[in-house]
Structures are given as structure tokens and as C-alpha cells.
Design goal:
The complex is a heterotrimer of chains A (459), B (402) and C (189). Helices cover 73% and strands 0% of the residues of chain A. With 459 residues, chain A is an all-alpha fold. In chain B, α3 packs across α17 and α13 runs antiparallel to α17. The two termini of chain B are 22 Å apart. Chain C has 2 domains: 106 residues, Alpha-Beta Plaits (2-Layer Sandwich), CATH 3.30.70; 66 residues, no CATH class. Helix content of chain C is 48%, strand content 15%. Chain C is built from 7 helices and 4 strands. In chain C, α3 packs antiparallel against α4. The chains are: A mainly alpha (459), B mainly alpha (402), C alpha+beta (189). Chains A and C meet through α1, α6, α7, α8 and α16 of A and β2, α2, α3, α4 and α6 of C.
Chain lengths: 459, 402, 189
């Protein structure tokens, strides 16, 4: 072929050439150097914010769930909004690590580790809310998990809340194992690079004696593929089951059949926005711009716009069918969302999730940190409001007008939400300090392919 | 690469013969069906059944063609022309074959296909009266015209650029032009297919509604497009039209994996719709599922789950099966049968509440429409090479390994 | 610490290039060695075939475990909800499989995932923190950018000279003795 086809091929994985050793040096630099002042300031700020969480939890436990704004008719308040929000954030990590792996998208290598870590922390934050919503979390274990007991009382397996126990529990565990499996070879690299015996001991312990043996690699690779294959339907199931919490009910605005795929698309949407929000800071803070490049941002923003359109499709379809179905209360709930007392939340959601992301059609916006950053921040806001709209507006005015009411969150509600962000960010900062935030193992394998192929093109 | 340059259009007499036999048999059964009053109504449902199948295969393939351009895929360049061949009816034939549906709607007294087209019936039903702004003949026809025009427009664009490449005319530019339309196509496709599904299939029972319905129909459509694509690729390879070494087992593996994935996706969507309706058990929507789970329809529903999900899923579960041509042929045939069954399950209970009825009155239109589809494929093969010979990424695609 | 007693347990050859490693692995296998291994910083394409390693059973056993999980879920939900602790809720039948499908699926994934993770540890012999590669100082190179073939002295075919000759013949220019410190079992402490 005489024509230059390079324009038709994807951009290189990283910028410039880099040897495996340089890659190790770049990725392990934050792990092996003394924390910078910036990092210390950041972690003390997020740590202080995280303290809000135990304070508000103490208030909840000492005084009861009455300290939250939930009451009739809105019995599910910010706690459930936050639960769905955090579970959703986690979904991008699994999407990147599992689904993009199955689709052989090599660019995922640069961001997969970070996104997976984000998944685990987000699921951790998510679990706190329903756990404390039970009122007496120290007894919840007996209520939630079927175990042989003297009373011979068992769970109601028809309850979507019980499905959540299985779904979120499995999701947390599988995501953790998937993440850890990916980490093992990198931890071995950390062990072998370590100078101080204590570091060597800790990373040695964590790397479970990994020696790069090919007889282990063969099982490892198969296992990684299995985890990817299992995680892909798992990630769909988790947010689908979260959506079932709402959709199996008869509440107008909750019971609609598009909820499962709509929730999954929304989760991936919000998760990618969160990955983009954080990874821009990460790569700046730790000088990884040549490894997590503008091409990564470009591709992530493309996924953001695809999922934004899916979410927009669901909003529109719900509205259309609410009218088409001809059920009076359903029609009312949707009119109430758009024009009732919570219309501000509804329009925040629509503008942040559907209108603003359309700017990402412009290539320059996708590739410029300054231009894309406000957009992804707004998506984080918008996706939180989406859950707010779903949970609150459907409950506050349903079939019985005599019991209509309003929901106003208390300071405890807000403190828990802000505090959960503190916990999440603190975990992220600690992760970046102590573990390699890019998978050097996968990156080296990918470099071998692309750099030799790239070199071949020029010869 | 010499073998590629030597690829030229080839008429397939066998394909043409099969197509003509199906077409003639179908027409032969359709004409008497149109003469009787009762058989005419059954003909109407059967025509929609056959048309919806043709529509699924064509647009399912068009979806994968658009996806190929949208994702800048490179492995699938070797099968791009086969996708184009299967999508080609969307340029005109799909619209032409819609004309009988238009006539049946306009002559509603004789065919009674869409209950909402009956003014007297709508007048005494307040819910249907409330839907009149959407469900009325002029608007319905205008929407159908819009959908068909959108699909024809995009297909024409993709095909024209592709044929220009064959002539060696600015091949790189053509790829870029096709890719540029990938995103607009996907958006238009999502909206038009969803609303076409609502108009043509869901409104057969105008009381019922489900927000996931468009996605449900899409999932079956994608599966049937994929199955048709797999069958066509393997048939062209076995008959030597696609030269040796073009489509490898690695390409087949990708098709197998996609079939596997979309079978699971269909199950996910179908189960979500069924379970949510079953669970909430609200009279305004449960009746639709209930109708399909009693009498003879229960068996059809179970067969649907088996043909659509259980059998393809377990056949394709082993890694080796996904690259094994014969397994893929078996699965594709089952998947296509599943699509016939799925559309039967969506359309026919509205006509025969007690149980599935299938006689010569039902067989005419599907046979004729299947014949028309095959005839269009054979015409395509006679005019165009079955490989995108001009695509600059073709060689890279041939070298694709897992 | 300076005068640790150590013994030689084999020979290691180091390569800079994965394709050289794959070619060498074919040679070693052909020479009839059984107790040997390759150590690489990342999985090398084609090395399994070169070494003659059979396909890993992790996938198959993992799937079986998944189906065992599915069976467990069917049994658990069915037995508890329909027989042992039957309660009527929402007018649903006692054995309402539709409502149990989410649990079926989750336990499928959970059992398969736990089994796969366990199998990687068991079959990949992880959790043995000590390796002669550490003592020989080869490990840091292997986890960074180099590729090693290790021929163990416990192999019935082994003789040091033959092993070194074989590695040299494959084009290896960096051949080192594989040593192991004779210490107590608290190696990693």
C-alpha cells in the first residue's frame, strides 16, 4: 500500500520512547521518595474532612436514625442517594479493568490500576450507608447473611435489599481480588527495588513470593482472563440490582423497566467522570504525563460522551413512556420532577449530565485539561443529583396526596456525605503513596509490542 | 498480495435459485391468503412478522457496520464488505417492502393490524384516546418515512465510500469519511430503532408500555445481524469467494465472542423486563407478559429463552467453540431461528390469544421476504467483490491475531 | 552475615530479549530437562508453547466452581424460602425463582472468583516467600527488564557443565550459578 495509513491508526500508548527501567523509576518514584509537602498538605486536608464521617456516625448511633432527614413520606434520603452514587463511581474501574481488557483496548493499561483502586474505595464508602441505615450495624451481620441460627429465622431472598447484600458484597470481594491479582507482579518489583529492609519485608510479604516464574504466569494469565470475564457481567449485575431496589416497587417514577441498563450506563458515566477528575491531578502530582497522556483523556472523554448520550436516552424514554403509558400518577411524577419543588435538582441533573457534556464533541475540549475539567466536575455533580431526583422526587409525592411532603437533609446527612468524600480521597492519596498507581508489568508488555511495531513502521 | 487483487464479483447460481424458490413459494401462499377475510387478517400479522425479521437482519448488520466505523476497528476490515452486503437492503428495499404495511394500515377495515387505527375502537377507550396525538395514521407514516430515510441515507453513505475505495479512489479519505459518520449514525440509529420498535411492534397492543422495549428489540436485532454475518462469512469462506487466509480462526473467535456476549445481553435485557413486570405485578403492564405465559404461549416463551440464551450460551461457553466454524454455524442458525420466534412471540399473541397458530396463511410472507433478502444478497455478490479490496487497513486486518 | 554458608542449586542464564528466551526455551525443552523454569517480568507470548506447559486448568475448574455456586444458590434460596422458613410476601409463590436469579448469579461469580484466586495461589505455588533467585541476586533483574532460564540441580539430567554449555549454545552471554543460603527457615524475617 502506497498511501500513508498512519492517520488511520490509534495514537501511541505513551509519549516518546521509554525503557522498562525508566518506566519503573517513573512509576515507583512517588512510592520510594519521601512524601512531598503538597502530598502531606493534601492528605491532612482530606483526613480532616474524613473525620466528619465518624463524628456524624457517632451522632447517628447515639441518637438514632432520627438525626437524618428521613421521615414519612421520604423514608430514603441522602444515605441511599450516596449509596447509589458511590457504587456507581466504582463501576468505571471494573469497566476499564475488565470490559476494556476483553475488548483488547491497550490504552486501558495506563489508567486501569488507578481506576480499580478507586472502585474498591468507592464500594467501601458505598457500603457504609446501607449498613448504618439498618440502625444497629453491629447486628446487621445477623440480619443480612444467612447463617444457621437457633431461632431458625432466615432472610427474605425475594427482597432486593437482600440481593444488594449479595451483589455489593460479591462485587467488593471480586474487585479486590482482581485488583490484588494485578498488583502481585508489581509488588514483587517494589520488593526487589526496595533498599530498606522494612520496605523489603512489607512488599515481600504482600507479593506472596512472586518470582515471575512462567509456570505461575500461565495460571496467572488464565486467572486474569477469568476475572475479566466474571467481572464484566458482575458489573452489569451490581448496578442492575441496585436499580431493582427501586424498580421492583410500584412507586411511580421508580417502577420502570429501563432502570437496569440505565443505571449501569449512568454508573459508568459517573465513574469515568470521577476517574478523569482524579487522574488529572494524579499525573500532575507524580509527573506521569508521559505515561497517562492526553490521548488517554481523549479516549476517556469519548466514553464519557457515549454514556452521557445513553443516560440522555433513558431520561427521554422515561419521559415519553410516562406520557405514552397513560397512567395519571406516572405522568404527574414526571411533570413534578421537571416543574415541582425539586425542579432545580432535575434541571441541574439534565444540564450537567446531558447538555454540558456535549462540549466533548470538540476534540480540543477533550484533550485540554483546562477545558474538560469543569465538564467532568459538573458530571460528578449531575450524577449525584440524578440519584437525588430519583430517590426524593418519587417518594415525596406518590399515590396519596394527603401524605405528600418535603425532604430536607440535616447536617448529619450532609456531614456523612462530605465525610465519605474525605475517606475516599484519603484512601486514594494513601494508595498513590504506597502502591504503584500504574501497572508497570502490563505497561512493559504493551511497550514491547507498540515500540517494536512503531519502530518497524519507520524502517 | 496477489489473491486479493484477483477477487471479483461472482454470481452465485445456487443462492439465486434458493432465493427464487423461496420468493415464488411465498408469493404462491400469499395470494390465496389475501383472498379470504379471515386469512387476510392472518396474512397481515404474518407480513409484519416477515418484515420485522428482514428489518432485524438488515439493521443488525448496519449496526455492526456503524460500530466498526465508530470504534475505528481494524480487525473487522476483512468482514466489512459482508456487513455492507447484509446492510445493503436498507438503501431501498427495506422502504419498498414497507409499502404493504402502509396499505394494510390505510385499509384497516380489511386487515386490522394496529388496533389504534380503528377510530370507533379508540373513541370508546379513554386510554387509547389519550394516545391519539402519537398513535394516528398520518404521524405513524411520517415517522416510518423518517426512519427509513435515515437508515437509507447512512447506508448509502457507507456503501458509496466503500465502493469508491474499490476503484482505488482516495482510499484513506474514504475511511475517514466513513468514520466521521460513525457517531451521528449511532445516535440516529438508537433513536430511530427504539421508536420504530415502539411503533411497529409495541403499538400492536396499544395499551401496553415498557421503557426498555427499544433496547429489547435492539438486542435481538444485534444478535440476528451478528448471526447472519457469521453465517455469511463462513459460507463465503467455504465457497472460496473469500480467499484462503483472509478470515482466520481469530476473526471467527471475535464473531463467536460477540455472539456469546450479545446472547447474554439479550438474556439480561429480557430478564430485566420480565422480572420487573412480574415483581411489581401492576395490571396496566402485567397482562402483556401474562398473555404470553398461558395456553400454548407458555411453550413458546420457554422455547424463546432456550433458543435465545440457554443453547447459544452453553454451546459457546468453551473457548474452543468460539473459533470452531461448524459450532458457529449451528449457533447462528439457532440464533436466527430465535429471532423468528422472538418476533412471533411479540406479534402473534395479539392475534391469537389462546395459543400459537401457524398454517399456510402465516408462511407466505416470511418465505417471500426471506427470498427477497437472499435475492438482494445474490445481486450484491454479482456486482461487488465480497472483500473491501481497497481498504488501506485490509492487510493489517488479515494479519489480526488474538 | 558475610560468611553465609551456601550451596549451588542450579544454573541461571539471563537474556535481554524475550524472543531469545523463547528460542532458548525450545532448546532446553528439547534437551530433555524437566525441572527448569523461565522467569520473566511480564508474560511472554508463545513461551508456554515453547516450554511445553499444558493449558492451565484454572478456567475450567473456575467455571465448575461457578456452577457449584449456582447450585448452592438454588439450594439455599429454595430450601430456606420454600421449605425450611416459608413466608408469604407480596403474594409471590414460595419458590419464586424470578426473585432468586440475582442471588444465583452472584453466587456463581463469587464461587468462581474465589476458586480462581485460590487456584492461582495453589498451582502457581505462591505464598512461598523464599526463592534461590533472591539469594543469587537475579530477582531484581527479572522483575525489572530481564529474562532468565533456571535449570535446577535436582533435575536427573543435570550436570553443571552440560547445563552451562546448553545455555551458552542458546546464545546466552550471562550465565550465573544459582545459589541458596543454608539458613534457618526464617529467611524472610
Amino acid at each position: 500500500m502506497s498511501a500513508d495509513t498512519s492517520i488511520l491508526k490509534p495514537a501511541p500508548l505513551i509519549e516518546g520512547r521509554i525503557t522498562p527501567r525508566e518506566l519503573d523509576d517513573a512509576v515507583f518514584a512517588p512510592v520510594e521518595s519521601f512524601p512531598t509537602g503538597r502530598w502531606l498538605i493534601a492528605v491532612s486536608v482530606t483526613g480532616a474532612i474524613a473525620l466528619l464521617f465518624p463524628i456524624c456516625i457517632a451522632n447517628t448511633i447515639l441518637n438514632g436514625i432520627g438525626t437524618w432527614g428521613v421521615n414519612q413520606p421520604v423514608g430514603w434520603g441522602l444515605a441511599i442517594v450516596n449509596f447509589v452514587f458511590w457504587v456507581g463511581i466504582g463501576h468505571a474501574g471494573t469497566l476499564i479493568s475488565a470490559i476494556l481488557f476483553l475488548f483488547r483496548q491497550k490504552w486501558r493499561t495506563g489508567i486501569a490500576r488507578f481506576a480499580e483502586a478507586m472502585t474498591i474505595f468507592a464500594v467501601f464508602c458505598a457500603m457504609q450507608f446501607p449498613l448504618f441505615h439498618t440502625g444497629r450495624p453491629w447486628l446487621a451481620m445477623f440480619w443480612l447473611i444467612p447463617y444457621p441460627n437457633d431461632q431458625r429465622i432466615y432472610q427474605n431472598f425475594r427482597s432486593p435489599l437482600e440481593w444488594d447484600v449479595f451483589a455489593v458484597g460479591t462485587y467488593g470481594l471480586i474487585s479486590f481480588m482482581f485488583w490484588y491479582l494485578g498488583l502481585i507482579p508489581d509488588l514483587a518489583t517494589a520488593r526487589d527495588r526496595a533498599k530498606h529492609p522494612f520496605r523489603k519485608f512489607v512488599y515481600g510479604l504482600l507479593s506472596v513470593g512472586w518470582s515471575g516464574s512462567n509456570r505461575a504466569w500461565t495460571h496467572y494469565e488464565k486467572a486474569y482472563l477469568m476475572f475479566a470475564g466474571l467481572s464484566t457481567p458482575l458489573v452489569l449485575s451490581v448496578h442492575s440490582i441496585v436499580s431493582f431496589d427501586f424498580a421492583v416497587s410500584v412507586i411511580p417514577g421508580w417502577h420502570t423497566t429501563i432502570f437496569p441498563p440505565y443505571f449501569v450506563a449512568g454508573a459508568i458515566f459517573s465513574g469515568f467522570a470521577m476517574v478523569a477528575t482524579l487522574i488529572v491531578i494524579l499525573r500532575r502530582m507524580f509527573h506521569l504525563k508521559h505515561i497517562i497522556t492526553d490521548n488517554h483523556l481523549d479516549l476517556m472523554n469519548k466514553i464519557v460522551i457515549v454514556t452521557s448520550l445513553m443516560v440522555g436516552y433513558a431520561y427521554a424514554m422515561e419521559f415519553f413512556i410516562a406520557w405514552y403509558g397513560g397512567v395519571a400518577v406516572e405522568r404527574y411524577v414526571f411533570m413534578n420532577r421537571a416543574m415541582g419543588p425539586y425542579a432545580w435538582a432535575y434541571w441541574t441533573m439534565v444540564i450537567c449530565n446531558v447538555v454540558v457534556p456535549q462540549l466533548l464533541w470538540i476534540r480540543r475540549v477533550r484533550r485540554s485539561v483546562l477545558l474538560m475539567y469543569p465538564i467532568v466536575l459538573l458530571i460528578n455533580v449531575g450524577m449525584w443529583f440524578e440519584r437525588f431526583v430519583i430517590v426524593i422526587t418519587s417518594l415525596h409525592r406518590d399515590y396519596l396526596p394527603s401524605s405528600w411532603g418535603m425532604y430536607i437533609p440535616t447536617w448529619t446527612d450532609i456531614g456523612l456525605f462530605v465525610g465519605s468524600f474525605g475517606i475516599f480521597l484519603t484512601f486514594i492519596l494513601l494508595f498513590c503513596r504506597f502502591l504503584p498507581s500504574v501497572s508497570v508489568t502490563e505497561m512493559k508488555a504493551a511497550l514491547l509490542h507498540t515500540q517494536s511495531a512503531h519502530g518497524g513502521d519507520h524502517e | 498480495m496477489t489473491p486479493i487483487d484477483s477477487i471479483s464479483p461472482q454470481t452465485s447460481m445456487r443462492l439465486r435459485r434458493i432465493a427464487l424458490i423461496l420468493l415464488i413459494a411465498g408469493l404462491h401462499l400469499s395470494v390465496p391468503a389475501l383472498l379470504g377475510a379471515e386469512s387476510r387478517e392472518r396474512f397481515a400479522s404474518a407480513y409484519l412478522w416477515g418484515y420485522a425479521f428482514l428489518w432485524s437482519v438488515t439493521l443488525g448488520s448496519l449496526f455492526f457496520l456503524g460500530l466498526h466505523h465508530l470504534t475505528h476497528a481494524r480487525w473487522s476490515v476483512v468482514i466489512r464488505r459482508v456487513m455492507e452486503m447484509l446492510a445493503a437492503p436498507a438503501t431501498g428495499m427495506l422502504a419498498a417492502l414497507f409499502i404493504p404495511v402502509v396499505l394494510m394500515l390505510l385499509l384497516h377495515g380489511h386487515f386490522s393490524l394496529f388496533p389504534w387505527a380503528d377510530a370507533a375502537h379508540v373513541a370508546e377507550d379513554p386510554i387509547l384516546a389519550g394516545k391519539r396525538p402519537y398513535l394516528n395514521s398520518p404521524f405513524f407514516l411520517a415517522r416510518a418515512a423518517l426512519y427509513l430515510a435515515v437508515w437509507a441515507g447512512f447506508t448509502r453513505h457507507f456503501l458509496r465510500q466503500s465502493f469508491r475505495q474499490d476503484a482505488g479512489d482516495d482510499a484513506v479519505g474514504a475511511v475517514l469519511r466513513m468514520r466521521r459518520m460513525g457517531a451521528p449514525f449511532m445516535m440516529a440509529f438508537a433513536v430511530t430503532v427504539s421508536f420504530a420498535a415502539i411503533d411497529w411492534l409495541m403499538s400492536l397492543n396499544p395499551h401496553w408500555f415498557s421503557t426498555i422495549f427499544g433496547v429489547y428489540v435492539f438486542s435481538g436485532m444485534a444478535l440476528s445481524g451478528l448471526a447472519a454475518l457469521t453465517l455469511a462469512v463462513i459460507a463465503l469462506r467455504n465457497s472460496g469467494r473469500l480467499p484462503e487466509g483472509c478470515v482466520t480462526t481469530d476473526h471467527l473467535y471475535n464473531l463467536g465472542a460477540l455472539l456469546f456476549g450479545f446472547s447474554a445481553f439479550w438474556a439480561y435485557i429480557a430478564f430485566s423486563q420480565y422480572m420487573l413486570i412480574w415483581y411489581a405485578n401492576m395490571p396496566e403492564e402485567t397482562f402483556y407478559i401474562h398473555d404470553r405465559l398461558q395456553g400454548g404461549w407458555l411453550g413458546v416463551s420457554v422455547a424463546l429463552a432456550l433458543a435465545r440464551f440457554v443453547i447459544p450460551f452453553f454451546l459457546l461457553l468453551p473457548r474452543r467453540a468460539k473459533r470452531h466454524a461448524r459450532t458457529l454455524v449451528v449457533v447462528s442458525v439457532i440464533v436466527l431461528a430465535g429471532q423468528w420466534l422472538d418476533l412471533f412471540w411479540l406479534i402473534m399473541p395479539e392475534r391469537h390469544a389462546a395459543g400459537p397458530v401457524i398454517g399456510w396463511q402465516e408462511l407466505g410472507p416470511p418465505l417471500a421476504l426471506a427470498g427477497a433478502l437472499l435475492l438482494s444478497l445474490s445481486r450484491f455478490l454479482a456486482r461487488r467483490p465480497c472483500l473491501a479490496v481497497g481498504d488501506p487497513l485490509l492487510e493489517e486486518s488479515m494479519r489480526f491475531r488474538l | 552475615m558475610s560468611e553465609l554458608r551456601h550451596k549451588q542449586v542450579g544454573v541461571a542464564g539471563l537474556y535481554d530479549d524475550p524472543s531469545a528466551l523463547v528460542r532458548a526455551a525450545v532448546e532446553v525443552r528439547r534437551a530433555g530437562y524437566t525441572r527448569w523454569d523461565c522467569h520473566t517480568p511480564y508474560p511472554v507470548h508463545g513461551l508456554d508453547t515453547a516450554m511445553g506447559i499444558p493449558e492451565s486448568p484454572v478456567g475450567g475448574i473456575g467455571l465448575l466452581a461457578g456452577f457449584a455456586g449456582l447450585g448452592t444458590a438454588i439450594g439455599l434460596t429454595g430450601w430456606l424460602s420454600a421449605w425450611h422458613y416459608p413466608i408469604h410476601i407480596g403474594g409471590k409463590p414460595l419458590f419464586s425463582w424470578q426473585a432468586f436469579v440475582p442471588i444465583y448469579f452472584e453466587l456463581f461469580v463469587l464461587f468462581a472468583g474465589l476458586t480462581v484466586m485460590g487456584l492461582v495461589f495453589a498451582l502457581g505455588r505462591l505464598g512461598r516467600w523464599h526463592s534461590p533467585l533472591h539469594d543469587s541476586g537475579i530477582m531484581p533483574e527479572v522483575t525489572c527488564d530481564r529474562f532468565a532460564i533456571v535449570l535446577e540441580a535436582s533435575d536427573p539430567n543435570y550436570s553443571e557443565d552440560a547445563a552451562r554449555a546448553l545455555l551458552a549454545q542458546t546464545g546466552c552471554r550471562d550465565i550465573r550459578p544459582l545459589i541458596e543460603y543454608e539458613e534457618e527457615d526464617d529467611a524472610f524475617l
